[in-house]
Amino acid sequence: MSRPSYETIKLEREDRVAWIVLNRPHRLNAFNEDMILELLDALNTVEDDPGVRCVVITGEGDRAFSAGADITAFPKTTPTLAEELSRKGQKVFSTIEEMSKPVIAAINGYALGGGLELAISCDFRIASEHAELGSPEINLGIIPGWGGTQKLVRLVGLRNAKRLVFLGERIKAEEALRIGLVDKVVPFENLREETMSLAKKLSEGPPIALRYAKYALNFGSQVPLEVGLRLESALMALLFSTNDVKRGIEAFMSRSKPEFKGD
Ligand code: COA
Known about the structure:
2-enoyl-CoA Hydratase, Chain A, domain 1; Lyase 2-enoyl-coa Hydratase, Chain  A, domain 2; binds coenzyme A
């Protein structure tokens, strides 16, 4: 799977894992409109590819995952354009949350503004030791506009979200780990290997159960508990119609490792 037509990202494949690499290193992988559209296209491509079981998003180079929206375009941004861009970014990030496959952010450097919003849309975040994370939008006189104000609160609580959004300070990877903004911190030279190790584990899991688990957790956490519990029961019932549940039970009984096929 290779899409040479992309100009601002790269789409690569290693085993059952798709790597989407943000590729504007001269701008610290900041998002322009093309990159937003190409990222959306790549996400839809990997979602539709049954050979892909897990997706990783990272940035090219060792400096930045992404430094957020491309500020050089701001002087020409009208309020209408700002609203359109905000909606397009939100669309990308909700696509990640709604996709059926687990998505990992491999944070290889700065994850700022929209870069942080992208990372927190993913299901897991592994950061390089030298990475710095933050929501510096306030320093430009704006606020996070790609879901950050809403999602940071859910991830790190109101107190930490206010610190990040009101003060616009960058925090180091270890501090991000302490407040639950990332799941793991590793030396930069181990980032790919550690990410692949998690991606491999996820890609060996039962795809339909993972899809429903993601849906129940992401969607269920936004609805009243009673609705979420009903959803959980319905999804559980559906899973008992899959062959993978049979494979899982048989493997347990025979003390072997199940090979889940996603049917
Ligand atoms: N948009 C456009 N260009 C950006 C960018 C962004 N968000 N972030 C960095 N760049 C560009 C810089 O302008 C610079 O380009 P140049 O070499 O043509 O001058 C290049 O990337 C390297 O960045 P530089 O600022 O020189 O690196 P640094 O190590 O001194 O600082 C940062 C790194 C991330 C701290 C700093 O670039 C920064 O604060 N960026 C903006 C982050 C931000 O506010 N994001 C939210 C946007 S809403």
